[in-house]
Amino acid sequence: MRLGYHSITWGGVVGEAAGVTSAKDLHYRANGSMAEAIRDIGAAGYEGVEMFEGNVADYADEPEVLRGMLATSGLELVSVYTGANFIYADALPDEMSKVTRTADLAAEFGARHLVVGGGARRAAGTARSDYDRLGDALDQVVEIAEARGLTASYHPHLGTIVENPDEIEEVMSRSRIGFCPDTAHLAAGGGNPGDLVRSYPDRVRFVHLKDFRPDPVTFLPLGHGDLDLADVVSAVREAGYDDWLMVELDSYDGDPRIAAEISKAYLDKLLG
């Protein structure tokens, strides 16, 4: 398995104000320098990087700039992360337009994975029919991805309608999309990450690793929290997964390069 790192730690995740009124223009992005992130991730010894859709879109008109930064740092763009509300019928065409553009850009820059999160919680509460809508929409995402040579995976996430194990089963039973376990989000949602990987061994298509402490909820570099990451890696291996392990850390109270180095040293020791 090869090791990559997400650029989110450089500045943390933000969204774009235009998305308040126009779903097609709402993109995730890291609020820091991608040139710095790519340089630091390569220097820490990783081979790949994941970026948010908004950051990749910044290079749509000058693709040679991003390709040059990746080549200089010895990295490949492995995956692009996007998301959508998915459950609102009127907004779905615009949401899918955004996903399609993201998939086009991911393929253009040589990525192999499209990682997707989302599914809103309604103010009035989540209805079971929302999971039907989510499942149908995610199958559309799979078709968009496959048409461009990408593998699509769903990433359960706090703040969406897929947080806990029961909700994960709701979407896994309704869609053929792959499963991207995020160790910390699964734990924060009340699940055991290793057990959840073992529950869906044939669906694991991508893996996000981050450590976690529950009280208060804190995401941490690998080895600095309470998760049994050795068990997660064992579960991933049992599933026959032999692809990228993508380290992700939403924020860090210090130099993000140091956080990347901490997690790389932990994984080097864990993986032998």
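Second entry:
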Amino acid sequence: MRTPGKQRLRNAVYGLYERRLARSLSPDRMPRHIGVIIDGNRRWARASGDPVSRGHEAGASKISEFLDWCDEVGVKVVTVWMLSTDNLTRPADELEPLLRIIEQTVEELAAVGGRRIHPVGALDLLPSATAEVLKSAETATQHVDGLLVNVAVGYGGRRELADAVRSLLLEEAAKGISIEELAERVDVEHIAEHLYTKGQPDPDLVIRTSGEQRLGGFLLWQSALSEFYFCEALWPDFRHVDFLRAIRSYAQRERRFGV
């Protein structure tokens, strides 16, 4: 067990390191768009002997803090994966409290001010109450000139691609064009125009917590040229210094954009 004196010393050293790390970052090497896979809430709760819902609550609290950090370094867009399409198959006794936590979190993010909320996901797969909260948050913040926050709820990368192609085909078919002409319109540019994140820059950096080194279907199309950073910390334990290390790692890389 750490003594109070040792703890104070540790905090002082940590604070000094954090400030030095922050000063070392170059403003012109910051990502415009960060995607974050918030993983590890359930493991965090179980490690403490708490119910799973406590982990989701702790993880939800971390989101606002993370967005503040992004604001501080000049990030323009953040995509937060809060619930996947696969998560919708979880037992009701876990899923229902999680949906309530998500609803409360989105409402709080919209009420803070300075952030524009944009839902990304298959809202038709969600309970009507959850979908309505997401839509209301988007409407309430649509004219906000600030950090754009994509809240990915009921999101799956494969589902997004299927929805994009379906939307493209329906749009073109409504014009009465032939199958041959329709086939010619199914290209990279036109599919991109029908993604959930249409009109936004693709993520420069994708962060995943909890030590898992996989995307799991997150922004499959948009992350083709992204940089990735995998952190061992469980999401509720993700610290400002972990965030700064992710930014530093990104800034030190030579991005080739597939060339």
